[in-house]
Amino acid sequence: MQEPLYGTPHAHSSLLGPLSPPLIRSTTAGQPDAETLRAMGAGERPGEFYQRLGHTNGRAWESLVAGWEGADGAVAFSSGMAAISAALAAHLRTGDRVLLAEEIYGGTSGFALTDLVRFGVTVDRFSALDVEGLVRALARPAKFVVFESPINPTLRLADIGAIARIARAAGAITLFDGTFAPPPVQRALALGVDLVAHSATKFFGGHSDVLAGVIAGSHALLGPIEGWRRRTGAILAPDPAWLLLRSWPTLPLRLAAQQAAAHALAMGLLEDVGAGRLVAVSYPTLPNHPDLALAKVQMHGGGCVVAVELPGGLPGAKRVFDRLQRIARAPSLGGVESLATLPAYTTHAALTTEQRRRAGIPDGLLRIAVGLEGADVLLADVRQALAGA
Ligand code: PLP
Predict the structure, then answer these.
(1) Distance between Cα 109 and ligand 1 center (Å)
(2) CATH number at residue 346
(3) Between vectors from CA 375 to CA 300 and to CA 378, what angle results, nearest 5°?
(4) Residue 59 falls within a domain, yes or no?
């Protein structure tokens, strides 16, 4: 096989010379001769040639992701949605069927239900919490099974290994959105999925200053995805790729600290539930979490997001939300700052109260994406907001 245009795993760069890599912004690069120009233009050789086909900073980051995921390679995109839409569009044809989890990021369902269906792809839904239901749904062939875990914003867990096995037995490709829990918290490829997608805007960036996405998997599946990226121009640019390289060495440290703080915050909030100040708290490693056994099998920790049900429905939740002082009222997750959102007003605003309730998302739900302030600071912030509401 010729060397792919995307990054493949390689050892960490040498400690000789500049420790921070150079940023190469040039959109084009001079070649030594006609044959090199031909080979690079034909995509037969990676290297600096024309930026839309690939570039040094992007490939360096892709190589790190590929190694981290234990994948053949990784293909980087300008956003998480560019990555997820590319993975699907590159492999689907008119007449194909996609099984899309009901519990999936709204951008993914928006793309599938607006765009894939326009091109004659059938999109059917299944619950990622109902493995038997997936077996029934796969009685009819599907090209893709698309799901995520932990599920946003309930923090219930899908059985990744079981879904991957069932899909593979039925000949479907699994596309797993790993944004909420990158390795080492969760290794989706090792659990059996075919392709893992990340919004690198979240933990890989980690500082709320990069929009990026990536798909990791086998060469056989990545080849068409890289071709789609080249033809559509959805590639990650060198500047954000450089910022992702900058963020790379601290990824495990940030994940570990944020995850430990999330667990401690959730444990603290459980006391507030016991005292009747909160309705409920959900976090995968809490002793009362319905999927705790699964968390122990497929995760190393519970991730960095905590869901809290506040008293008084949406009006009560808004009062507490508006009083937060250390946790920013902002969408997203995975950054060093803690962020709070009300899913009833943001990710799940399109659903009615009753539809949300059936999806396990009460209107009083507050989602906290834990950063690096420390659990005590965050607990004190939630408690002062509750006390004054
Ligand atoms: N997947 C999940 C789980 C997300 O939370 C997001 C963004 O919030 C995305 C995908 C899309 O990523 P991006 O905003 O980088 O396109």
Answers:
(1) 12
(2) 3.90.1150.10
(3) 130
(4) no
